[in-house]
């Protein structure tokens, strides 16, 4: 069960999804904190929280019933879909829970009859259920990779999109049977789609930053160029006169039906993973604790969240400080050997990656900017996409982007020196090698090694790779959404792989990885979305033994997000519950947590001390 400090003003973590009810009077917001909040938006300038609905894991989506206004379905990474009755006074009843799916539920949509529900999952399947009885009806279709979004038209036509680049449209022949099916394929992932209100046009959000408008038979009407970064989500006005797109450049883009740009809204707080339109309003997700509500006609903000969230995404060391980069754009500086603590407001956008050089701190942000901070702040131009990874390679700072690029930057001027598309997917992690060059891990499933332009694939996972770590140029380890960690011995002279082992433990995606000890006897640490921090003592002589090795060192209240080697024997790890721990390697079976801190408590003490100081000064 997710355990995050409750927030009285909204969510305790970023918003994953927003869903306006058709009348615009209610808004459901879903979050990494494991809850769905229902807001009264009858006065959109002052949204009020009516109800809080809980799941065991993060909530990915919500959908209002088109026939019964009080019914709301929610879909979670706990592999369930729940159907709730939410009364006007905020009281709630759990009507039903659909049988547990085989993987996380990414998206849901009601059919027009208000009785059947389509669920799409990371297992690639699109399934149809009788939502009120819980009966499974049929499989509507399947994808070769994760199915990311479903939209159902007013005519009952089902559209699904997935990471396999496939768009599928299925016409239902009867109450429980799929009929005619149309398929269109793209070269890269498709994560968002939405039928126009008339059901005549399907908008598809493409990973290359464009939106295609398609007929019900998937013939192209027009392509609308939106952004240099991936288009993630899209929704239509009630009269189909315009649509709004959320893109991974951190912006909301408004277009008329003919593809002419109307407005662009840039706000570092907005997480445009989800948008929803109804009755002249647009709701958008946020890295802060509540929704953004805008006027659809003008793009003007009507309401915004009150407080930031501080989920940690990146770690670095500067002198005697452990630096923690957060969703709020702040860096928390924690004394490695004492109780020192300070808050550095480094960026306006969430910090996804950190690096340190000669006392200067560098941060890669979701907005696609690189920030240099050494008391003063210097900001690069927009580099085209979010920057989830950074490392230093000789005299250059290398950033990895959501677009699969490496960007080499001069650390002094932040000028771009070189850039190229090194991977076929987002570069999630970089790790510098001691003698130059670096390791890289990406959503194209590969782990690679080499210099900036001279790369070689070390190995491939069965799904995207979230993180990579090195140990003295002789060992590398990687963490993947395929629920495994791979560790390999490398030849230091040329980086070729001598031997690999696959480590098992987590039952969910593995998010971060690190290495301690020596090349001969390394200890692998990894953090997972199942809230566990795992350790494996690698024995290169016993490959088969890895199937039964590994143990849980610590459990968090949310998934782990990042990890950093401090020295040969110590590792820092952070989770989205705001907990930061230091783990120390001992003898066999003795790797353990030796220090544990909570960012919320440190922040509260810091804020209290700051206010006391201001009162004394006054």
UniProtKB/TrEMBL annotation:
WD repeat boundaries on the chain: 8-49, 52-94, 98-139
The UniProt record lists the keyword Cell inner membrane: no
InterPro entries found in the cross-reference section: PQQ_b-propeller_rpt, WD40/YVTN_repeat-like_dom_sf, WD40_repeat_dom_sf, WD40_rpt
UniProt keyword terms in alphabetical order: Repeat, WD repeat
PANTHER family: F-BOX AND WD REPEAT DOMAIN CONTAINING 7, WD40 REPEAT PROTEIN
Pfam families tied to this protein: WD40
Keyword Repeat part of the UniProt annotation: yes
Protein name in the entry: WD40 repeat domain-containing protein
